[in-house]
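User: Okay, second chain of the day. Same drill as before: sequence in, structure tokens out.
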Amino acid sequence: MLATIKSLGPIRFGLYLLTLAVLPFAFIVDIDAETDWLTAASAIVPTLAVLLFFVLLLDALMSKVFAADARQAGVTTPHRRHMYLSLAGGLLLALVWAPFFRTLL
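Assistant: Same drill. Structure tokens below.
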């Protein structure tokens, strides 16, 4: 487990932690909040969720590119695992936040 976390690197690990931190806010975000801390959550967190979704997809794409490059060199790398983790995080974000964004439309 510790080796897997070390193989992620600090930036990717922070990306996954931030993704997990944004997920619970999907259930408490209120579109009509005008006061209190829910205003900040309702304005900032959905935007952050969209940005994280696209960053996770970009990370999956770049992991696929690096995995293909490493395969040509004959080196085994953990890029495939990183790609699947990023895709799983993006799918999880999309599933959890879909009801909120559906109400906006």
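The chain has one domain: 2-104.

User: Thanks, on to the next one.
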